[in-house]
Amino acid sequence: MPAFHRRRPPIAASCALVALVTAISSPAWADPAPSYAQLLARLDQTPAATEALALEDAAEARVRQARVRPNPTVSLEAENVLGSGPFSGFGGADTTLSVSQDLELFGRRGARIDAARADARTATLRRDLAVVDAAGRLALAYAEAEAAERRAALADETLTLTLADARAALVLVEEGREPLLRGIQGESEAAAARATADEAAAERDAAFARLTAVAQLAAPVTSIPATLLDQTPASAAAAAEGPPTVRVAEAERQAAERRIAVERTRARPDISASVGVRRFEAEDANAFVFGLSVPLPLFDRNRGNIDAARAEFRAADARLASARQDAQADRAAAEARLAASVSRVRAADAGVTSAEEAYRLSRIGFEAGRISQLELRATRTALVSARTAAVDARLARVRAEIDLARQDGRAPFEGPQ
After folding, report:
1. Per-domain residue ranges for the chain?
2. 235 forms bridges with which residues in the sheet?
3. Strand 272-280 relative to strand 94-102: parallel, antiparallel, unpaired?
4. In this structure, are residues 101 and 72 in contact, taking their beta carbons and an 8 Å threshold?
5. CA distance 222 to 403
6. Which of 23, 243, 258, 386 could lock onto 355 through a cystine, CB 3.0 to 4.6 A?
7. Which of 309, 308, 297, 307 is nearest to 267 (CA)?
8. List of E strands, 80-237
9. What are the pLDDT digits (tens) for 81-96?
């Protein structure tokens, strides 16, 4: 046994070394991230919101273009010129200058404008949905970063507790009240806790990097000073106009219906009127010219495009039915998950309180020699599990709030938009 002691390094020295490494490797976070509310206020600067706004502007521009009438056509014709006999040169020329205009009869222009307006409304609703989705991604990235930060802090605290338990075990080993095996186990637990703390720190840094990218921040996020995990979800009722996904599907269906009307008007004759003046050089006289141009629908009656528009309308109608069913199921599921997560948070908090008291009492009993190190380790493990479960419960509550907010058409933890 004495020889074995000489081969082993002192446990106290090992614990002190691990504690020193912990203190040195722990970074001093200096640049906190903006709060979730501040990031939400600048959500329109994100690429997704910018893209959706640009597509809405494009749709509005197409509405303006749809209101514009077609340009008139100016034509100049010369007859009976550069021939033979009396038609040589330009002396007997008949010259006609005319202007023709597409009349856009049979509701062609109105149907075109209505279709463009329907597309613009769809683009507006898609923009709103894109903003809601962007807010959900931001809330999730913020909550995950905060959860990763808490897990890293919990891992550091666990390492501190493990080192303290290892030092207490060393004292008992030196007093002969515990076998040397308990001290070796303490060293092993401290090394495992150190590895867990390093892994948690890496996950925290990765979550901070994701938040920096999602929030489009110029400087990297280094800490989360304002909590989102502890924030109470907003109690907002369902939107009166329905979920955003359903509204988008309804707008797409209406736009598809408007395109059927456009294709039907294209099947009707495209009548053009013309007016002009003709110059008769031989008689030194002028005369007005009037005309109408009507295509004969012998071959192309636009039936293929009409059938295609009808098929697209049926597809849009099917998407709307599916969107309504999915929205109803998703909302019910989101409400159930949110209620369950709220109860889970309360239970997890109660579990943390109980686990903290159990560990405190077991630590007192261990130092007094009334309980073994195995019992102390069990209560410490239970405390770590309880605190981890509390963080997981809060993150689940945020996810449930994000799902419900998407159905309500609002940003998470905010009122109706």
Report:
1. 15-22+30-69+104-267+302-408
2. none
3. antiparallel
4. yes
5. 27
6. 386
7. 297
8. 94-102
9. 877 777 777 777 889 9
DSSP 84: S
Tens digit of each residue's pLDDT (9 = 90 or more) over 3-19: 333 333 443 434 443 44
The span from the CA of 229 to the CA of 218, in Å, is 24
Better pLDDT: 254 or 171: 254
CB 128, CB 244: distance < 8 Å = yes
DSSP state of 272: E
Distance, CA of 125 to CA of 318 (rounded, Å): 19
DSSP per-residue letters across 106-128: TTHHHHHHHHHHHHHHHHHHHHH
Structural contact between residues 29 and 223, judged by C-beta atoms closer than 8 angstroms: yes
Q: What CA–CA distance (Å, rounded) separates 83 from 258? A: 54
Amino acid 24 reads: I
pLDDT confidence of residue 185: 67
Q: What type of residue sits at position 306?
A: I
What number of helices (H) and strands (E) belong to the chain? 9, 4
> Which carries the bigger pLDDT value, residue 162 or residue 254?
254
* Arch. (CATH architecture) of 15-22+30-69+104-267+302-408: Up-down Bundle (1.20)
Which residue has tokens 């207490």? 168
